[in-house]
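ugh ok fine here u go
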Amino acid sequence: MKQKILIGAGIQSDLEVLYQRISGFLNPLNEYFFTFLCVDESAENELIEANTRSNGSAHSLNLLKKVEFELKVEGLKVPANVNAEVFKSELTEASLAGLSGVADLFIIDSSIFGNKNGWEELTRLINRVNCPVLVLPKNAKVDRLIMVHEPEHHSLQIVKDFLKIFNPDLAELPLSVLFNFPEDEAQTENEKFFVDYLKMAFPNIGMQLMVEEPINEFFNELNSDTDKAMILTGTNLGEEILACPKTIADCRAKSSPLFIYKK
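structure:
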């Protein structure tokens, strides 16, 4: 299967290390077309939306940073099933929307959004994207999966995208699914169908009904085990997780891979 993957990184990103982190999550049997985008917050956000107020010296500095980034991408050593390129034009809101509209996944190196303001910028970046997103932290290790299931179509699509895009070995990990209380018999039956579908792909599933707000139940589940988790969620809950006011050191969600489904 051929897949188009966008990779958002920064000037300070170690692209060789980032590529190794990414390759551990993707299906080694697929053929990938990577397009690297420079989304470094330190570049005055010029690569996110045109900044016509920049002075000449700042503009020249940003051009040098872009060239440095392009050279790093061109120097990457990738296997035969991976085609890597860099997006050399200015990355405006319109071009980002267009690129992500034809992509299967947008992977973001979250290490370049280290401070509180950076995470706000990361959320704004994700809001501009028209494909599923994987927020990938440094030293990402995964021992289990957590998914918050809400009675909407996107929960099924989260699973389908996960199975299509990611390494099949990840589906062998323990999966914790948090459910809302069914509102009626029809919803109860639909959730039974959903669980049956999950069991076809995930051999180790644990299910739990939520009694509190989904965001609170999620953090309770995340903090109940020391094993590193990969988080699977929809857009709204994903943004709530990113809005956690704690630092990366104090918020385990910010140091966990976060897969956000977007229509």
